[in-house]
Amino acid sequence: MQPVKLMKKRFVRSLFSLLLFAGLGFSSMAQEVQPIGSVAELQQRLAAHVRQPKFAAATWGVKVVSLETGAILFEENPQLYFSPASNSKLYTVALVLDRLGGDYRIKTSLYSSNQPDSRGVLKGDLLIYGRGDPTFNRRLNSGDLFRALDPLVHAATNAGIRRIEGDVVGDESFFRGPPFGSGWAWDDMQYYYGAPISALTINDNRLEIVVKPGTEVGSPCSLAIRPATDWLVLSNRTETVAQEGARRIHFYRPLDQNVVYVFGQLPLEGTVYADDVTVPDPAGLFAAFFREALVRHGVTVTGRARAVGWLDRQVQPLDLTQLVELGGVESRPLRELAREVQKPSQNLYTDLLLAHLGALRQSPTARSLESAEDAGLRELSRFLGEAGVRRADVQFEEGSGLSRNNLTTPNATIALLQFMHRHREAAAYLDALPVAGVDGTLRNRMKATAAAGNLKAKTGTLRWANSLSGYVTSAAGEQLAFSIMLNRYRNTDPHRTARAEIDTIAVMLAEFQGHSTP
Q1: Cα–Cα distance list, 455 to 61, 325, 409, 472 (Å)
Q2: Quick one: pLDDT at residue 368?
Q3: What letter does residue 221 receive in the DSSP assignment?
Q4: CB of 465 within 8 A of CB of 485?
Q5: Tens digits of per-residue pLDDT, 462-515?
Q6: Which of 62, 202, 323, 343 could form a disulfide with 440 if both were Cys (CB 3.0 to 4.6 A apart)?
Q7: What ranges in 255-343 are assigned the alpha helix state H?
Q8: Are 509 and 64 in contact (CB under 8 A)?
Q9: Averaged over 175-201, what is the pLDDT?
C-alpha cells in the first residue's frame, strides 16, 4: 500500500506544479512539471517568476536561506526598503519574548487609599490600574465579557469589599502618549484593526453593532449593541426594503465621538448584519463594565465609573507606593499572547505589548515627553543590534505594521528569523506563527500543497504591500527561512492576487528537492 500512496502523492504534486507554473512563460511542458532538484534550478524558477513583465511597476524583495548551512538559496532586492505591513509583528513579538520571556504575565491591579473596614465598606475610590493586558474580552471567554471580568471582581471581594463609597476609576496612565500608533491613517480608526491603544483594554476596545430588518418595508432597521451598554449612541439612518432588495449597511463613528451613524438597508426577513466598531476612551468603558460586574456580584457602588490617563497624572501625580494594593489579576503567559498576536494578526495586542515594554523601560516618576511607544521602539533598536540586524535596515514608527511608514529589508527579516531560530524562546516564537492551510491568516492559503501543515509564517497586507516571512521545510528535509515582500503591485487579473503570487514562491520552497551547500 505504501508505494501506491507515494505514487499518488507524487502525481498530485506534479499536477499541482503544472497548474502552478502555467503562465510563467516556460516553453516546454516537460520543463514545467520537472521537480526542482538543484539550487541553480530553484534560482532560475524564482527569478523567472518575480521578473515577469506584469511586475514591471512593482517591487519584489525576496531572500531565502538555509537554517542548516547558512547558504543563500535566492535573493532579489534584499537590501531595499519595503513596507512590511504586519510582518512588523515578527519584530515586536521577538523583542518582547527576548526581553520578558514566554512565562511573563501582565498584571492588572486594584488600589485604594485604604483597606475596607470590618463591614466591607471601602471609603473612597476603587482604582483599576492597567498595564496593557489585552485578554479582558468576550472572544477568549466563551463570548461572555463578564466572565472575563470575574477574576478581577473576585480579587475585590476577596479583599473584603462589599460596598464602595466612591467611584470606580479606570487608570490607564501606565502608558504615556496618544491612543493611536504613529503613522496610522485617520480612516483606520473606526475599524477593528485600528482600535485605540490603552493600558486598560476591554473587549479589544470595540463593540459589536447588530442590525436586524424592521417589521415592514419602509421601517427603520432594529439596532443593538453587544455587549449591551450605553457607552455608544446609535444614530439610525437605516431602512427596511423589499425582500428582493440588496443588503447594504455602513457604520461611521467620527473621531473621538461616541456617536455611531448607521446607514443603509436590509431586506425584509433578511439575514442579520453584525460588525464591530471601535470605542473612544477604553479605560472609561472598562470602568463602566467593571462597575456593572461588581454590582452583579452584590457589591454596592455609590459612585460613578470614570477614567484617568497620563495627562491627568501630569497634573495629579500618582504614587502607587502610597496606596494599598487590594488585589490583582495576571494575564495569560506571554507565549500565549504571542499566538493571539501572530495567528490572527492582531494589531492592538501587538501595540499593547510594545507599549508595555516601553513603559517598563521608562522612569515612573520622570515627566518625560517620550511616549511608551517610542520607548518600546528604542528598546527594539537595541535588541536588533544584539540580534545581528543592521539597525539602519529597520525604520519602524509603531509595532503592528498598520503604519504605512514602517520600513524594513528582506536582509533584516532574515537576520531576525535566523536569530530567533536559535533563541531560548524559539519554540514559542515558532508556535505563534500561522500554519499554511491550517490556522490563523494562512488557514485558507496553500491548501493541498507541499506547504500545507509545513510552512509557518507571518502574513502582511496593506493596500499596496503584501508580505510573507517565516520558516518552511523543503521536500529534502532542509529547514529554510524566507522573507517575501511585494510592494506596489496592481494586479489586473481578479483570479490571480498578490497573495497568490507570493504563495507560488512559498510552495516552490516547500517542493524543493535539492539541498544547499555551505
Answers
A1: 19, 46, 21, 4
A2: 72
A3: P
A4: yes
A5: 999 999 999 999 999 999 999 999 999 998 887 889 999 999 999 999 999 999
A6: 343
A7: 282-296, 310-315, 334-342
A8: yes
A9: 94
Count of positions (residues) in the chain: 518
For 190, 192, 279, 413, 489, the CA distances from 257, given in Å and listed in that order, are: 10, 16, 8, 39, 36
Give the closest residue to 183 by CA, choosing from 326, 409, 373. 373
3-state secondary structure of 427: helix
Q: Which residue has the cell 475585590?
A: 156
> In which element (H, E) is residue 17 found?
helix 2-21
Residue 177: how many CA atoms within 13 Å on its side-chain side?
A: 24
More confident position, 365 or 57: 57
Q: Which amino acid is at 445?
A: R
Q: Tell me which amino acid residue 466 is.
A: N
Residue type, 283: A
Q: What is the pLDDT of residues 22-63, one digit of tens each?
A: 444 333 333 344 789 899 999 999 999 999 999 999 999 999
Pairing of strands 126-129, 233-241: unpaired
Q: CA-to-CA distance for 192 and 201, rounded, in angstroms?
A: 13
- CA distance to 27, 89, 448, 453, 454, per residue, from 437 (Å): 31, 20, 8, 6, 9
